[in-house]
Amino acid sequence: MNIAVFGTGSVGQALANRLAELSHQVVIGTRNVENSLQKTQPDGMGTPPIGEFLKNHAHISLQTFADAAKDASVIVLATKGQGAQEALSEAGKLDGKIVLDITNPLDFSKGGLPTLFASNDTSLGEQLQAAFPNVYFVKSLNTMYNGLMVNPRALGEDSTVFVSGNDATAKGVVVGILKEFGWKDSEILDLGDITTARGTESLLPIWLRVYSATKNGFFNFKVATGK
Amino acid sequence: MNIAVFGTGSVGQALANRLAELSHQVVIGTRNVENSLQKTQPDGMGTPPIGEFLKNHAHISLQTFADAAKDASVIVLATKGQGAQEALSEAGKLDGKIVLDITNPLDFSKGGLPTLFASNDTSLGEQLQAAFPNVYFVKSLNTMYNGLMVNPRALGEDSTVFVSGNDATAKGVVVGILKEFGWKDSEILDLGDITTARGTESLLPIWLRVYSATKNGFFNFKVATGK
User: Fold this and answer.
1) How many Å lie between the alpha carbon of A119 and the closest alpha carbon of chain B?
2) Nearest CA of chain A to the CA of B78: how many Å?
3) Phi then psi for B88, rounded to 5 degrees?
């Protein structure tokens, strides 16, 4: 498939790398290509700058959001939550495209652990769906470390990936990608329509506290049923 | 131990029953004993009225919050979230006591799935701790169906119970109770101080959506680490 990955950070790089490994045609979208390529330092989490990444991934190109989206049937939205709507707006006409939305509404502005800028009676997933009603949003993968998103078997035990979205066909396409990543059918839990993103985005506060308590982000939530 | 269970609903009954089985001295606290005993119908979830429960549990008595708390070293707070602070206020002097807080800030007033009346940058656990600064609050067990709280082995696989609280000794007492219920050391995750209740209370939105999607409340979240 032609897939555009929006976002040049650790999540975008992990998804682009893995999708290209799986022989998809991958382009990475960014707001300003030149600015993105000018970065020479790793980010706060140690992720190398996108220019470095591209040197090691000759088949992946960096384009503006609009250029990246043009031929893509699936857009992987891996920007910061606060930049998600703007990135989609800059991408031009997206009607009919599928967006695999991995974003979370994290607000880092107050210092300490981030809070959520959309929560409880709304979600970023719903807000994006409302802003782009003719785009097929599927929220998934937003509840774990990016290394596990694209390689769930690395965990060494089964865990859960949630799926939220209004369109069954779009969810089917996303589930297909999840399976390519290595997710088992029994690990994929379709929660229902896009309002269920309130549930998965609300895993961030507990994710952050498990991470703080254990000093280890290499975990995932499992819905344990004994089966 | 002398344990007072505040709350006459399904959670209170499950905890009182199990603690009495484990040979603790258990009293149940309620706002108005007479009113509670006058109920003759099961609640919306099919939980029998407290009068019915007491007939089958001769060693457990129903008392006012204040009477129940008087001799208790541990109070199990299993009221509705919205009634929690009032119940503790009616209980009189609680300084120095341990409160195992199982409540969640669920707001059912809007219809549909409940939202949270405390979330994101606060939690009910913190609010109660702030309202009763000399009480040792330990938030735990609030992230699952009550049958699993008191009998985690029934699930047939390991899962996670979280613990949040400011006082290490109080958390130790609660962890002791968890182990009596059957929780393994490896399943008990101490997240830190009471502010981490923001994390566990935020599991309710996802709990509710897993329940809605699967029509099955007999599950628990597990922090899966592959170990």
Assistant:
1) 7
2) 22
3) -65, -35
